[in-house]
């Protein structure tokens, strides 16, 4: 039977080994190099989406592994998903406003 401290939830985090941290580190390093290489190639209209895709991938790796969200409770996952949804909604409303303005040149 697991031992519970009074008033505290049991520790649900699992320890990741050094190998996993090194794998994630080298993955992040590789994605950073890929970002630099992608910035040096002229891809009309695609440079920003590619850079954003790489940046999003790096952010997901950091959140999942270095912030230990991958081993977190369902409540933590719900908060993260709700936060990403809220951020997407804010971006959507901001861009909708931006695209529907009448841009007058004075």
3D structure, described in words:
- With 106 residues, the chain is mainly alpha-helical.
- It has one domain (18-99).
- It has helices spanning 18-39, 47-66, 74-99.
Q: How big is the Rg?
A: 20 Å
The computed structural class is: mainly alpha
By DSSP, the count of extended strands is 0
SSE string, helix = H, strand = E? HHH
User: Which strand-content bin applies to the residues?
Assistant: under 5%
Distance from first to last alpha carbon:
75 Å
What are the segments in which pLDDT stays under 50 over at least 5 consecutive residues?
Answer: none
Q: Categorize the overall geometry.
A: flat
Specify the helix fraction band. Answer: 55-70%
